[in-house]
Amino acid sequence: MNAYDEYMKQVVKPMRAELVQVGFEELTDAEMVNEHMNSAKGTSLIVINSVCGCAAGLARPAVSQALSEVANKPEHLVTVFAGQDPEATVQMRQYFEEVPASSPSIAIWKDGNLAYFIPREQIEGFPMEQIKDHLVEVLNQVVSS
């Protein structure tokens, strides 16, 4: 591993921990992604994490708060880290090729299908509370149906 890669690994450690601390499992390679996506029953909340400011100030806090408020929690919480785990990110995005790749983004996968997707365009520039409320509303609808 070169010095840059080692530096970035240390820089993103707290960004990874922010989701892991609220129950997310990190999928760091294509095999882990395929294993989850092909075996998970029920609903998975998938966060495509990134180092950008809108991930730090908006997406991760909105997801964490939504999970503490939502009545219907998904059975699975998983994340891939764009720019850090490229193999896992590319593989995850293949499961919802119909939407343009963006990070950060939030996907809700239910019973083998993409049930909902919140792209970067609906995160960046919006108040964190609005993103959280949007996610709570969607989770309450999708998970309970």
Short description, anyone?
The chain has 145 residues and is of the alpha/beta class. Helix content is 49%, strand content 19%.
Question: What does this molecule look like?
Answer:
The radius of gyration is 14 Å and the shape is globular. The protein has a five-stranded mixed sheet with strand order 1-3-2-4-5, sandwiched between helices. 49% of the residues lie in helices and 19% in strands. The longest helix has 18 residues, at 3-20. It is an alpha/beta fold and 145 residues long. Strand 4 and strand 5 (113-118) form a beta hairpin.
Secondary-structure map:
Layout: H1 3-20, E1 25-26, H2 30-39, E2 43-49, H3 53-69, E3 76-81, H4 86-94, E4 105-110, E5 113-118, H5 128-144
Parallel strand pairs: 1-3, 2-3
Antiparallel strand pairs: 2-4, 4-5
Helix pairs in contact: 2-4, 3-5
The SSE string, one letter per element, is HEHEHEHEEH
Count of strand segments:
5
* Mean residue pLDDT: 95
**Main β-sheet description:** 5 strands, mixed
Q: Specify the overall morphology.
A: globular
Beta strand %: 15-25%
Unreliable residue stretches: none
SS content category: alpha/beta
The total count of helices amounts to 5
Attribute tags:
145 residues; alpha/beta; 5-stranded mixed β-sheet; 5 helices
